Request: fold
Amino acid sequence: MTAARSAADAMNMYGKERIPFLFVFDFLMQHPLVFPLDQIDNRQLRYAINGQSNQTDSGPAPLPQNTHFSFVPPDRQAFQQAFDKVMHHLRRGDTYLLNLTMPVDISTSLGLDDIYRLSKAPYKLWMRDQFTVFSPEPFVRIVDGNIYAHPMKGTIDATLPDAARQLLANKKELAEHYTIVDLIRNDLNMVASNIRLEQFRYVEEIVSTRGRLLQTSSRISGRLPDGYLGQLGDIMLSLLPAGSISGAPKKKTVSIIREAEQYERNYYTGVFGLFDGHQLDSGVMIRFVEQQPAKLVFKAGGGITVNSSAGAEYAELMQKVYLPVIVSP
Reply:
């Protein structure tokens, strides 16, 4: 039995018995984790998902004085080589949307635990000596038999003149957003009926160490079958990997990602979430800092289409390397 199948079976069992649990899935589903909430040691793992948390403190601690955060821009030539490989496959028609990512070395006075405590995001997770994630992106929510997805594609510097209009009018971003919405609708159709696009390309703001950003998301819903609580694991397996951080078609695109990126994403761009005995809420693990020997690495990337340019995508990658707290320069 594979690790993915074992994790899905555990989720099915806990869901059927209405036992609250947390799940943490890596990108390739090689090391999935499922924990009943009452068995989680918050000295080793902490989560905060839209107000549900195992934190024991009352809120974020004050930002330490003289806090700093900076990063080393990723190797431009290495990015260009990866980008060229992706464009080769896009032009051949092997993929029509691919999320290309890279590791970025960062320098900060904050540790993983500090970043977790100080960050402001709806989906936060900390695993001791491994990584922390502070994601703005939902994966799926399951509420009263309905399933909801909020794919996120498109980012711009909010301080640019008329930034929201620029973002919404960008033809490349619009085409990419259409693609990911179609992909997520097709994914949800595998597990649910009555699929509806409830809201298309709404704009949200993020405040970060790099300033203010605007991003666009959409809202899609569907109706799950009777008995869905005993199928939570199978539902999640059917939807993975998340379309917004892989691409389309998924299987071929993931193989191209592995060829082009030449590094291990591990838990970055996986998903994690919580079932409270009634509802399930989950997020995509973007905005991700990983502990590596003697350094911290921020993993980041963006969607590539046949209309993308290497320069613009490289700039977007660097724009996403931030902490969602205000720190001194």
